[in-house]
Write a structure and sequence with these properties.
Layout lengths: L2 H6 L14 H18 L5 H11 L1 H31 L5 H22 L10
Helix pairs in contact: 2-3, 4-5
Amino acid sequence: MNAMSECQALPEMDLPPVSKLLPAERHRIEQLQEEMSRRLNREVSFEEATREWFSHHALLWRERRLRAMLHLQRQAMDTHKWIRSEQEQRDLGSAAVLEWIQHYAAAWREWFEREYEWTDPPLPE
């Protein structure tokens, strides 16, 4: 089976609206669209690339991105916990983590999405 027939053989599926995709995921689909167009030597639509993305790439990409995000987020929480515990001269434990979630989690998530909109975050070792 050649690459062109592979794309045509993809099962029909309901695709999420583009507005529901993270900007980083839209960028990855656009990159896939360009790569498919070069490989197939024809224009590939965004919808065709999106079907390919969700059929063969999205799950692994999302898992890796989530793993990296949680790792970086945990580092930020641990740093906050350390700083707050030093300030209080005692281990604040989960109270400092909850404080970070209440005061900084939303802003941190916005930072993460901006910082890694065009590149993939580093994977934990």
